[in-house]
Amino acid sequence: MMQYLIVIEKTETGYSAYSPDMSGCVSTGATREEVEQNMREAVEFHLDGLKLEGLEIPQPTTSSAYVEVAA
Q1: 69 occurs within a structural domain
Q2: Which residue from 24, 37, 41, 52 puts its CA 20 to 30 A from 8's CA?
């Protein structure tokens, strides 16, 4: 089992998400829960496509952190 970071952003119509480890793997959803589910499916679909093409599965390499600053 692999864990891939996804970045979720609020949009005017809901949410969008992408994975920095998988170029072009993006999704949208009306709610945060929906975009997370859609992104899970997009990642699985992306990986299945890579396998079918005989291409290497990218290893998860990105991470995230928050920094606290005075605003």
Answers
A1: no
A2: 52
pLDDT band of residue 1 (cuts 50, 70, 90) is confident
Phi, then psi, of 27 in degrees rounded to 5: -160, 170
List the CATH number of the domain containing 39: 3.30.160.250
Closest CA to 40 of 60, 25, 55: 25
Residue 28 sits in which domain range?
Answer: 7-52
**CA–CA distance, 4 with 50 (Å, rounded to integer):** 15
**Assessment of whether the complete model's pTM goes beyond 0.90:** no
Q: Could you tell me the two tokens for 36?
A: 């997370």
What is the phi-psi region of residue 39: left when phi exceeds 0, alpha when psi lies from -120 to 50, beta otherwise? alpha
